[in-house]
């Protein structure tokens, strides 16, 4: 993938005006809107669901990237797809039949991804790598916005790239989420990330539009 993409996470935004928060980052050049869906079971927090996403779909034409941090995601994926998401990722330990779910998501014309928690090794992807569209590497423990980046997680990237080479799946996209900011995004970008999720570094900045522009400039430095 030649173009690196920025996906602001509205989890860090003001929930009283999410539509406005989306328009701000869209006007600044955001590529994707990242949606953190939590059920209070898989992670100790509850966020947004299908009705909110359905209403936000009317606000923007940007792709919606939904990260399902929920138990038994197979029970809800159709609802999220109907609400207008374009990308859906879930966790292997949240479902029993991951391959079946991936194939179902893709059959609906939606990209399917697998999310890896900081403690999940890359080798858990050895069989499912043949079928997915992207991998979401969590660089914080999922559940809350504003956490500190875990640098050791970067060790997964060369392992994942090696697995992609060995399986002929070099087209799989690599997404990273958690603690991404202006200080670390350039260095992380050098490792070959395709999609950067950023929440607090955008929505808690004094100038949100400038934060988006700065992050995009730094993550694309190698492409100039």
Q: What's the short story on this structure?
A:
It is built from eight helices and eight strands. By secondary structure, the protein is of the alpha/beta class.
Question: What does this protein look like?
Answer:
By secondary structure, this protein is α/β, with parallel strands linked by helices. The protein is 30% helix and 18% strand. It has a single domain, classed as TIM Barrel, CATH 3.20.20.70. It is built from eight helices and eight strands; from the N terminus they run E-H-E-H-E-H-E-H-E-E-H-E-H-E-H-H. Helix 3 links the parallel strand 3 (64-69) and strand 4. The protein is globular, with a radius of gyration of 16 Å.
């Amino acid at each position: 993938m030649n173009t690196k993409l920025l996906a602001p996470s509205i989890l860090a935004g003001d929930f009283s005006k999410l539509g406005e928060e989306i328009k701000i980052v869209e006007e600044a050049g955001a590529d994707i809107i990242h949606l953190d869906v939590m059920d209070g079971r898989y992670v100790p927090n509850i966020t947004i669901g299908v009705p909110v996403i359905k209403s936000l779909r009317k606000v923007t034409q940007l792709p919606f990237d939904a990260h399902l941090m929920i138990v038994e995601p197979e029970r809800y994926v159709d609802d999220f797809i109907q609400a207008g998401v374009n990308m859906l990722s879930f966790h292997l330990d949240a479902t029993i039949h991951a391959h079946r779910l991936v194939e179902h998501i893709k059959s609906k014309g939606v990209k399917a991804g697998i999310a890896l928690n900081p403690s999940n090794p890359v080798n858990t992807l050895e069989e499912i790598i043949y079928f997915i569209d992207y991998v979401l590497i969590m660089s914080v423990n999922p559940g809350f916005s504003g956490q500190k980046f875990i640098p050791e997680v970067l060790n997964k990237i060369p392992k994942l790239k090696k697995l992609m080479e060995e399986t002929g799946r070099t087209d799989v996209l690599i997404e990273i989420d958690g603690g991404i900011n202006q200080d670390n995004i350039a260095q992380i970008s050098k490792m070959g990330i395709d999609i950067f999720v950023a929440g607090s570094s955008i929505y808690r900045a004094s100038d949100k539009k400038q934060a988006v522009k700065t992050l995009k400039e730094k993550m694309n430095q190698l492409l100039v």
